[in-house]
Prior knowledge:
Elements: H1 2-9, H2 13-19, H3 28-43, E1 45-46, E2 51-52, E3 70-71, E4 76-77, E5 95-96, E6 101-102, H4 122-125, E7 128-129, E8 134-135, E9 155-159, H5 165-168, E10 172-174, E11 177-182, E12 185-193, E13 198-201, E14 207-212, E15 219-220, E16 225-230, H6 232-263, H7 269-295, H8 300-309, E17 315-319, E18 324-329, E19 336-337, E20 344-347, E21 351-359, E22 371-375, E23 383-391, E24 401-409, E25 420-425, E26 429-439, E27 444-446, E28 449-455, E29 460-465, E30 467-472, E31 475-480, E32 488-491, H9 493-500
Antiparallel strand pairs: 1-2, 3-4, 5-6, 7-8, 9-29, 10-32, 11-26, 12-21, 12-25, 13-20, 14-16, 14-19, 15-18, 16-17, 18-20, 21-24, 22-23, 22-25, 23-24, 26-31, 27-28, 28-29, 30-31
Amino acid sequence: MLTSGLLRKSVPLVLFVAWGCGNESPDPVVAQTAAASAIAEQANRCARHDLPETTCFICDSGLRDPGRLWCTEHDRYEDRCFLCHPEIEDPDRLWCGEHSLYEDECFLCHPELREAAPTEASVTAGLYCLEHDLPESECGICHPDLASGLEPGSGLKIRFESSRSASLAGVATATPVVEAGRSDRTFLTRVTWDENHYARVTPLAAGVLRQVNADVGQTVSRGDLLATLSSPEIAEIKSAYLAASADEKLHLAILTRQQGLVEQRISAQQDLDHAEAEYEVAKSRTAATRQLLFDHGVGAGAIRRLEETGSPSSDLDVVAPLDGTIVDRQAVVGESVEPGQSLFRVARLETMWLELSIPERDVSQISTGQEVVATFDLQPGLEAHGRITWVGASIDAETRMVTARAEVANPDRQLRHDMFGRASIGARRLAGETTLWVPGDAVQYVDKQPFVFARLADDLFELRKITLGGSSGRMVAISAGLEPADEIVVAHSFTLKSELLKSRLGAGCVDH
């Protein structure tokens, strides 16, 4: 360790060298530059280990060999921690206590050894965890950080203190459900109205409902009268329209008379121009008031009746905006209503939409035009057939699901809004192939990756990496990582996850 000590203590010598050893005066620029460099180098050193920050792997985990486990408790590589593994200490090799490495591999003391330093994961392969009676490379309790690098079908082992620990914790196991010959992906779906043929009917003016002419279940056509309300606002607009119409007629008569007087050379051209301008203003006022009536839901027929009777009633008709069936009614006679308040909902029931919840992992395999077959547990034998018409462009932040939509025919009107079922996309039968299904509660996520726990013995379980397929109700399909004979934890799997992650709560000795 003498060499490394000399190297560390040689930094201040830069100042001495800069000044020189003769009688000549030192170059102040060179001296100042050297001093600044020395100060900067000293400032960028690890104060704890007196090493450059760019090489201190003890403090900076990013500088450590990713293929070797790290013992956080004793601040050294696990394969060099003789406090945890006294059986692997080699008494014939010199030990660098400053950096917790063998002297013949300490590249911090001997930079020329940097390329020869052990970096292979095989260094830790021979270590054995005496506490859990497992190889260190397989011990999930000591090394849960290894889970993220597993391939589907491989895993880490978890050993309980006794053969009764799992059963006392309520852990239960079962083999996967095997379904033969299906290659489809199944997702939770909900039936909704076809919103291209669906409308909420609302009044366009405030008033009181005087009459209701339609009820739930009634088939209506566009323009049919659904209800009538009394609105002082409508009466005022109608009065303004009648006044504007009368004023327009008056100015038309004045214009006609002025044209006759000009032809007889009794009136000046200026009077005729003035009459024409006033008539145009009156006509514009009438047109604007008529449009205001249209905007408040007064139809052309009602305006004609208004012109014929000259009576500005407060009645406002509420009519059906499309052909369909009334599926909801909130209108009650005598009730005060406001613009935007829903009175009826009208839908065309011959077509419906399916809203599919697609997990984020499956979105890349879903596209428009794919065939969809929906089934419903509460309606045995009922199937809805259609195609994907839209796949959402965003992922729900909480559920991590993407919404897709399919349009399906509903000629017998057996599909109802808010029915829940399962939608299979690209369904087909394949001879000789099987799909494994497990309860959704059996799947646990570690570092955002899916796993299940497989029972190997009464006290030994394996965290098994899997690849998920589709879902069906509370069941999820496993496309890789499981075999039909595997015993999977289906109840209290979180107990095993807690056991696995004990070291992350401070119970273990390794970093991750």
